[in-house]
Amino acid sequence: MGIPEIDVDEILRNSTVRDDLPLHVTGNFHSREAAQELLNSVMGFAKIFGSVFDLSALEGITIADDYVGALNRIERAYPGMGGPSPTRDQFGAGHAMAVPVLRGQAHMSHVVLNSELIRPIVDRESQSYGLAVHSLCHEFAHVYDHMRRSKALPGLYGTPMTDLREATLMQLAMGAWDEYAASRLSAPWGTPDYCAGYEQTLVPMLETILSRSEAAKKEFANHRSVERTMAELQEILGTFFVRASYLTGHIDGLGRPLEESAPALATALEQTSWFNSIWKRYNSLLREMFDKIQNWEGPEVYRPLKDLFEEMFLRAGMRIVALPDGGYYVQFMKTASL
Question: Which pTM does this prediction carry?
């Protein structure tokens, strides 16, 4: 069977990306023509992916050498919401983000790209060409998912949550869902080494979840800051689950089992008996949410994930206890050997 011909003109005509989409690029280029070539390539891929995903909620694209500065300059317009923070920890750093923004009453997204990541997209012979294309596709998948959720759950995004427990658990649940959905949607454009890269990060993260949690709680005795220790535990647990969502979303998008795509992680999970049931529930919940998104009826769709994260906090030695006055008492406990 021969490869079917692709009608590029038809793809471009059917694209949901508007022709006058704002594009911005800043940084060091050897010529104005080189900068324009990058913009043209990114716009071309935006048009193509706009025929795969509904990208009518894409507000614009910014490419910058100063990625952090570019993120900080995005006006989000959600009341009380600060600027977006790029991922940066001992396990890696982020280089692209689809930033949700409010424009009038419309929930939209602005894609910000580190130019170091996206520059290879102009050269098909570059070893980093596939990564650039997949990264761009992944961020467009976020744009599409943001739009779907803003319609399915009107009024949720950008609404401040004052309840400590609910806000903490919802942030973790939404972060896990975000990357699972985008990774699953963009999986067909992934690079061959995608799973291996995440596997190499996730195995040591899994092996040190409890030791890093214990270290954070031990430091609490010195600084006595509940907020600091809560944030540290949230980062330890949330970072693992969000990074895991990249991998599980990707392999679910390809229809492959974990044992085939990330055998070292599968083995590590089998050997970590205390975590195995949580891992299975986690993946099952994400798949169920993905399959039923067209029928989401309210924020309670996140409840099973929030319950799972609360159980994970307990296993890591943190309990958020409700008080009669509506406040909370946060208790840190030594984790038993599991």
Answer: 0.92
